[in-house]
Design brief:
Length: 221
């Protein structure tokens, strides 16, 4: 049986940075499910579909054939055969993903892909519903969070370090809006699984969080 680690938590909690590092030092594959939702959102944007028209999104999303490959250890998302990694991390795609991921047909479209990856690989998978819905039997579940203030500050620093314009208040408001959407939707809302370990990284360094989760992996392996 494959060894599965589920990491859930709100946007900007550091899930992908931490999961990538733990994957590397514990020999696991890192599966970024947010990137899959983003790829579907990109498809919805490209087709000009109105995100508020749930029926239209449900119909259109089946045309998004999403596959995952690992190239030099990096997850590459293919949308209908095209490598779309370079288009997934924009605010526009993130905001669209937050809306479209609340639509049951979109979630159903990606669920099997995620379950199959976990059944066939020792992996660490991050998202919002991994411990609760996708991998309810994962050997280790972590709920990784941080205050919205800290998450906004991290995002702000990331953007300004790249020389990009950033507005802290807007970033914080967007994060809080996305938290609300992700945790109040009817289907697979963001919430801590009963058997998940809570890690609040507000006052921890990245290295401390990586060490803590690696240690938890060792306890369950
Ligand atoms: O983690 P992220 O920001 O890349 O995720 C993009 C959006 O996809 C986010 O608004 C929540 C959604 N998502 C989800 O609903 N379920 C997942 N397992 C992963 C992401």
């Amino acid at each position: 049986m494959a060894f599965n680690v589920a990491i859930d938590g709100p946007a900007g909690a550091g899930k992908s940075t931490i999961a990538k590092a733990v994957a590397k030092n514990r020999g696991l594959i890192y599966v970024d499910t947010g990137a899959m939702y983003r790829a579907v959102a990109l498809y919805i944007l490209r087709t000009g579909t109105d995100a508020n028209d749930t029926e239209a999104v449900a119909k259109v999303c089946v045309g998004a054939d999403i596959t995952i490959a690992y190239e030099d250890g990096v997850q590459v998302v293919y949308l209908n055969g095209e490598n779309v990694n370079a288009f997934l991390r924009t605010e526009e795609v993130g905001n669209m993903a937050s809306k479209t991921s609340a639509i049951p047909a979109v979630r159903a479209h990606l669920l099997n892909l995620q379950k199959n990856l976990a059944a066939n690989n020792d992996c660490i998978m991050d998202g919002r519903d991994i411990g609760t819905v996708v991998l309810p039997n994962a050997q280790l579940k972590v709920f990784l969070t941080a205050s919205s203030e800290v998450r906004a500050k991290r995002r702000y620093d990331e953007l300004t370090a790249k020389g990009e314009q950033a507005d802290f208040d807007k970033i914080k408001a967007d994060i809080e809006q996305r938290d609300y959407q992700d945790s109040h939707r009817e289907i697979a809302p963001l919430k801590q699984a009963d058997d998940a370990v809570l890690v609040d990284s507000s006052d921890m360094t990245i290295d401390q969080v990586i060490a803590r989760i690696s240690e938890l992996c060792d306890e369950k392996a």
